[in-house]
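Chapter review. Work through the record for Large ribosomal subunit protein bL25 before attempting the end-of-chapter questions.
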Amino acid sequence: MAEIKLAAEPRTEFGKGAARRIRRDNKIPAVLYGHGDDPVHVTLPGHESMLALRQTNVLLNIDVNGKGQLAVAKDVQRDPVRNVIEHIDLQVVSAGEKITVDISVNIVGESAPGTIHLVEEQTLSVEAEATHLPEFVEVSIEGLESGAQILAGDVKLPAGSELLTDPSYVVVLVTEPRGEAGDEESAASAESPAEASSEG
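Structure tokens for Large ribosomal subunit protein bL25:
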């Protein structure tokens, strides 16, 4: 994955009032931490940052006063109503370093006719190189019959990734729609009064 460069400004004002002023200027308060160094408080460009973070596990090159620093977003706080980013925690990384990230589970294919699939784990936790972080993993359910399970340990991970999620966890379960039996019983009970009436 190609890295995305964001120009950052050092941040010297703190507190809710300062954060509001920063956001009014269409910027986002953020903090860089990691590798045992003191946290570095910065301000990021709002629009560019929101576009960058549409990607999962994107590698960022944060430019502070002309000095670039590779980082990944570890926590993104959003306004629940407006869905705008209010603050970003950035973890400093370096080439070759391995870090822990969550990757999305994407289901592909169709299970056997008359069955449905339930996704029990929406994400898997993996360890991967910071400069080659996977965005997602594909799990095929093509042709699987009712009762089939795909465990975390069965999922084929992208090259260079190591599974940290318990391999015995069920990721996908194929089953029959639960409502069918209940619908049949409801239909039978609905017919009973009419049948009783006709018999009377």
